[in-house]
Design a protein that fits this description.
There is one protein chain. By secondary structure, the chain is α+β, with helices and mostly antiparallel strands. The chain folds into 2 domains: 121 residues, Alpha-Beta Plaits, CATH 3.30.70; 100 residues, Alpha-Beta Plaits, CATH 3.30.70.100. 24% of the residues lie in helices and 29% in strands. A hairpin with an 8-residue loop joins strand 2 and strand 3. Helix 2 packs antiparallel against helix 3.
Length: 238
């Protein structure tokens, strides 16, 4: 527990940061990810997207070496909300953003008039439960599963998932939330080329029966990648 507290303390400061820049030498070397959510104002989706594109241009002008994924939620109660994320960071690099004050000013000018910041959380990639690198392929579709656990059940949950890790056939990325919401929470990312590929992999989609008593709430959503609302992302070949 003491080790976990130290690890968490090292990244808490990053929860306050808006999108920034990471020195290129440190990019894609760490287990930490930031996943955030924007809710476009009702009837304001077109202006939101135009403003977000202008904000990404600020990142280009600032020579931001981070990669930022952008997705629109396609299914679920949060339909049409926007998810943006960055992966593969070290704890130290998350506090090394370039021009955070200017970044914030540009956000206020171009994004916040058209959307509400609805969530911002830090996660740690769990390779022992996953298949993949911790940096998702930029496929047209992605399944996002959010799992809230009964407090105190984390070790049993991770042990159950780890026991079947070797059976995973396709990219499946598990992350443990460190800061930004109700804990214990985990998210699973399953990038896929098509909706059919998501629906046809039901055997991998289902959680092990033994974890069912550990679950407080589970939500599954399908996201559409938005290349024009992403930055530095190389779309996976189809």
């Amino acid at each position: 527990m003491e080790t976990d507290n130290c690890r968490l303390a090292s990244v808490l400061l990053a929860a306050l940061l808006l999108p920034g820049a990471l020195p290129a030498a440190e990019s894609n070397n760490g287990p930490y990810a930031r996943i955030a959510v924007l809710r476009p104002n009702d009837g304001d989706t077109v202006d939101f997207e135009a403003g977000y594109i202008r904000h990404l241009e600020w990142h280009r002008q600032a020579k931001d070496p981070w990669t930022w994924y952008g997705w629109t939620i396609w299914t679920g109660d949060r339909q049409r909300w926007f998810v943006y994320a960055t992966f593969g960071h070290t704890a130290a690099s998350l506090s090394s953003s370039v021009s955070p004050a200017e970044d914030e000013r540009d956000n206020i000018a171009n994004v916040t008039p058209h959307a509400l910041f609805a969530g911002n959380a830090l996660y740690e990639y769990l390779p022992a439960l996953s298949r993949g690198t911790g940096i998702p392929q930029a496929t047209p579709r992605m399944e996002l599963t959010t799992v809230d656990l009964v407090p105190g059940s984390e070790k049993a949950f991770e042990a159950a998932l780890g026991a079947r890790q070797s059976a995973l056939q396709y990219e499946t990325l598990w992350f443990r939330m460190l800061s930004g919401g109700s804990i214990p929470r985990y998210v699973r990312l399953r990038p896929r080329p098509t909706l059919a590929a998501i629906l046809e992999s039901t055997s991998e989609q289902a959680l092990p029966d033994k974890v069912i008593p550990l679950l407080a709430k589970t939500t599954t959503e399908i996201l559409n990648l938005r290349p024009n609302l992403s930055y530095g992302v190389t779309v996976a070949p189809q």
